[in-house]
Specification:
Length: 658
Amino acid sequence: MFDIETGLNDKETTNYERTLSLDSALVNVAFTQNGVAYKRQFFTSFPNQVMVVRFSASEKGKQNLVLKYTPNPLSTGSFKKSASGSFCYAAQLDNNKMQYVVRTQALAQGGKTWTDKEGRIHVEGADEVMFLITADTDYKMNFDPDFKDPKTYVGVKPLKTTDEWMKTASKMSFDELLQKHYQDYAALFGRTSFEVNPSYGNSETEGLSTPERIQRYRTGAPDYGLESLYYQFGRYLLISSSRPGNMPANLQGMWHNNIDGPWRVDYHNNINLQMNYWPACPTNLAECEWPLIDFIRTQVKSGARTAKSYFGARGWTTSISSNIFGFTTPLSDKDMSWNFSPVAGPWLATHVWDYYDYTRDKEFLETIGYDLIKGAADFSVDYLWCRPDSTYTAAPSTSPEHGPIDEGATFSHAVIREILSDAIEASKILQKDEAKRAEWEKVMQKITPYQIGRYGQLMEWSKDIDNPYDEHRHVNHLFGLHPGHTISPITTPKLARAARVVLEHRGDGATGWSMGWKLNQWARLHDGNRSYKLFGNLLKNGTNANLWDSHPPFQIDGNFGGTAGVTEMLMQSHMGFIHLLPTLPDVWHEGKLTGVCARGNFVVDIYWKDNNLTHAEIYARSGGPCHVRYKNQNLQFDTEKGKRYKLEYRNGNLKKVD
C-alpha cells in the first residue's frame, strides 16, 4: 500500500475535481489551495509495465512530499540498497514463499529528493515530481506442471524484471510514457463506439458528477449518456485488468485494497469468471480473452487427475473455485450441494470455441483450442449416466448454489450439449477424430431433453419441484438460452416461452451480477423493454457511485455482464446469423453501435433512427458467407476478406447496397 503525504490541509482545498478519462485511461485530480492550482495525473502503462504518477502545480517549489510503502503484513522482506530518491523492497509471502519485488523512483524537477532508512522517499521544494512504480512476482504460468516440484510455478526473477522496467521508464519523460500508454490503450478502446439518443440532449446532467448522475438516474430521470458511459466503462475495466501474459480478471477484476477479500478474490467457475469475459470478443477485445484461455490451459493437467480420481472419466474438468496453481478439485464442505459443479470445466471450454468462432483463427483451433475442447467433451461424455432406456443424464448434478443434488439438473445438460456441439464443429473444421465425433453426436442426441413443468416453466431439475415464488439470484437452468444457443425464440419458441416464465418468476431484482445475467437472457428473448428494465435496475440498484458493480460488496462481473447485455440487445450472432437490433427498447429512439464483432469474424456498425434500422456496415475479416437478419427479413451474401459491405433498410426492405 502506498501513502503520499503532501503537507496540504484538506479543509483549505477548493475547486476539487477528479476525473477518469475512458478514452485514455488517465486519471486527473485538480484543486486549488491558497491561490495555487495543484494537479495530479495517474496512469498505468501496459507496454512499459509501470505506474506513473505526476504531481505539479501552477507555482514552482510547491511539491513537498513523502511517499511511504507499507508491505504486505503476511510476508517477510526488506528494503534493498537503492539510489537516492528511490527504493526497492524484496520479500516473499509467508505461506507459499512466493517472491515479490516493488520498486519506486521519484524524478523531480527542481528541489531535492532522498530516501530515509525506512524506505520513505522525500521530495522537498520541487516544481514537479513524477513517481514510477513497478512490481512483479516470481510466478510463472505452467501448462505442464510437475506436481512433485515445489518450484513448478516459479520462473520469473522479479528483481531483474522490475529493474529493467524501471531503467527503461526512467529514461522517458512523462509525455513520452503517456503517449506510449495512450497508443497501446486507445488502439483497443477506440475500436467500438456507442451512442444513444444524441438528439435528446439533457442539459440537466451537464456539470454533474458521476455519483450525482447515478443518484438522479435512480429517481427515474433519463440519462442516455450515463447508459453509454456505463457500457464503455465495462470495456475500460476489461482492457485494464486482462491483457495477454497476465492473470485473468478475478472477482474484483484486479482492484482490491487488502490482503484478502470477499470469496478470497478468487476465480469462481460457476458464472463469475465466465461472465467477466462475455464482452471480450463481441466488443472487439479478443486479445483480452487470452488471459482466460491461458488460465484454462493451466487447469488441464490437474483437471485430468480430478476427472479420473473423482469421476472415473477421461478428459479434464475443474470445479466451482480454482486458482493459478492448478487447484481443480471440489471444495471440502459438509454440504456439497452449493459447490458441486463437475461441468465447470466444460463451461470454461465453451469460451475457447467462442474465441475461435469470433476470430476464425484456425491455427489457434488446431494448436491450442481443439485439445481443450476435446478434453472437456470427453469428460462430459464419461460423466453422463446411460439410463436403462438409453438416455443420458448427469448424475449426480446440481444447479450451482441452488437446490438439491439431482440425477439430471437442466444446467448440467445444457452445458454438456454446448461443449459437445462445439467439439463436433471443431472436429469437422479440422477434419479429425471422426470416430470420436460420432460418439459425441450419438450421446448428444440422447441427452435427456429440456422439460416444461406444471407452471409452464423450464424445469430446473429432473423433477417438477420449481417454486414460482423463488427469486434466487442464480438462473443456471437458462444456460441454453444464454450463454448457450440451444434455446431461442426463433428455433425453439416453446422452450423460449418456458424460459420467459422462469425469468418472470425470478423477478427483475437480485445482486448486481445476477441482474447482468438476466439482462442477457431477456435480450436473447428479444424483449427490448424488459431488457431495458433490467439494464436500468442494474444501474440503479446494482451499481456503486464509482460505476463498479455491487453484489454487494463490489464484484466486477456485473459490469462485464452489463456491457455484454447491451451488446446482445443491439446485435446477436449465436444462431448462425447476424441479428441486427433484435432487442431494441422503445426509449432508444436513435443511436449507433459501431465496431462490435459477430461470429464468423465480421465487424459490424449499426445505425438506427425512429426505432428502425437505417443502415449497417459489415467488414469481413476472414471472408465467407454472411447471413444477416433484421426483424423478419433475411439477407445472405458471400464476402471477401478485407472488404466492407453496406446494408440499408428502406420502406420496410433490407437490402445490400453495392
